[in-house]
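Quick illustration for those who missed Monday's session on complexes.
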Amino acid sequence: MSSSRTLEEVGADAATCTRCRLSAGRTQVVFGVGSPTADLMFVGEGPGYHEDKQGIPFVGAAGQLLTTLLGEIGIARDEVYICNVVKCRPPGNRDPLPDEIDACRPYLLAQVSLIDPRIVVTLGNFATRVILDRPVGISRVRGQRFTWEGRMVIPTFHPAAILHGGGQASSQMAAVREDFATLRAALAELPPTPAPVEQQLGLF
Ligand code: SF4
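Prediction with iron/sulfur cluster bound:
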């Protein structure tokens, strides 16, 4: 997928995509939402029931929890970009299959390339494995800082895992809060983004 394309053009391509079997059961493609120039990008697993109906990622209970966690570190949801590894809902909310992830990967890589976030937060095993391109387990790597293609990656648990975590929910919630504190610190440590050349030259 050419990096000379705009985010809107890539999204328009995805909207009619039939590259994998997930196209058969979707209501609509859930491409991504948020600031196209975000410093911070979140990558989840795949759309659920509500996301499939509304066409927006993270709108159900897991999305509300993500919004709450962002608010706790002083970030508004519309300041970040949010998307998933696969853009169409797996039937019955099953895990995405390897060939489906491979088919959808070019869209995710195009989103990262075009939005160019300084930090990517991967939510859960699938996003973490796709972005880091290694078979890691989220429990082992959560909260650590990785470098991938010149940007920082911080994995943490998927909010849905906390909501369905049963007896582990409170410990997972504490872990995610710890990871979001790491994220806040990482954002604070980032060097300022250089001003546009025109601004540096005093042209506006
Ligand atoms: S999941 Fe991705 S690759 Fe599969 S049909 Fe949807 S947009 Fe295309």
